[in-house]
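Narrative summary of target 7.
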Amino acid sequence: MIPRMNEGDHGRSCQLAHGRKHVVILGGGFGGVYAAIEFEKTLARDSDVCVTLVNRENFFLFTPMLHEVASGDLDMTNIVSPIRKLLRRVEFFHGEVEAIDLVQQQIHVIHGDTRHGHTLPYDHLVLAFGSTTNFFGLPGLRERSLTMKTLGDAIFLRNRMIAHLEEANFECAAPEREMLLTFVVAGGGFAGVETIAGMNDFLRQALPFYPHLRPDMLRLVLVHSGPEILPELGQQLGRYANEKLTERGVEIRTNVKVVEMSDQSIRLSDGTNITSTTLVWTAGTAPNPLLATLPCKTKGGRLLVNELLEVPDWPGVWALGDCALIPDQLTGGYHPPTGQHAMRQAAVVAHNVMGAFRGRVQQPFRFKTIGLLAAIGRRTGVARIMGFNFSGVIAWSLWRGVYLSKLPRIEKKIRVVLEWLLDVIFEKDLVQFQTIRGHVQTSNPVAQVANGLTVEPVISNGV
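Modeled conformation, tokenized:
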């Protein structure tokens, strides 16, 4: 049994004060963080209401720029914002949600290395869980493939590319060069196209520093199940992106799927086997598994909500973003799970929760997609904004301008702009970040270095 919080628990005094209403937000993506920011402007200022955001990371990740970290265009710290710096009045709980009890109106959370448990009571609950990767049960993918959803994913992919270049540059590795220098990305949507475009730029710019490698040794393959990549942007822009990537050396395989991955090869649905150990999987997402534990109506694993973003039959429970299916009166379907929708849903949720507290009129969620943009490498992009198509450097400039404006905090904006300017002048960095710490005291430090471990010397006081 998870214990209820004691009064001495750090930073949790908010919900213990008698008579105060408590709003709990679960999830630190676009929906959760921007809902917290909206609450910060309104309810969090009131003495009779407190708001708590729960997230497993202590930062907000700006995912549209994630591929630029993998490709070496941006430093990894510049696309993340510490949640405690974004929120001053909203309290933050750095931990994981273990269970949700809608009947008792309680959230069971854990935190720390000891997985210490707490129970958070709530009056209003905002579910803003992001999605998880869906491997569709395909053999070998969960164990062997890479993903591109977290900051760690981007760093790991960058390290993998550098490690393969370093290994392939040795003459003794000549028999394995095909395997080492073949990179596959599955999924021809925004994430897949931007990822392989960034990978292609990074690898080809790095290649001149490896004297035993030639451009014709590199093979980058984009696998897409449909007839055109970037189907959300339409056939014309999809074909443009296809042509540009092909010109730059990317092999694009359409109307085919990845069906299996083994230790040294990737098998496609047409029977082709690609010799490679690197597959970046961007071809499927699934709702957070916690949603399946709730006694709510779902479809495809996502919660069915009304236009007010309320979960039917459960007063005080709201959902938005990737975990919710929100009816779209304009199309008769549901709103897409994109960042621009989640940010606006966050504002509606904050308004409606405040309305529930104050007895004010609530507003339905109404929004039509303004535009869609994708960067496809080498200062080239594709975009559809307000029904108009853009491509080339204009679309690339729009991509950077739009996402820079959405990036939280002026400090991060300035740092990103400076990095973009320096990227025009200097080559990409080829540093492989080691995340394994070796033992300080060792009988054979040479062996540790050879195994890729970082040996840190002991420095005594006064030296």
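The chain has two domains: 13-131+287-358, 141-283+371-408.
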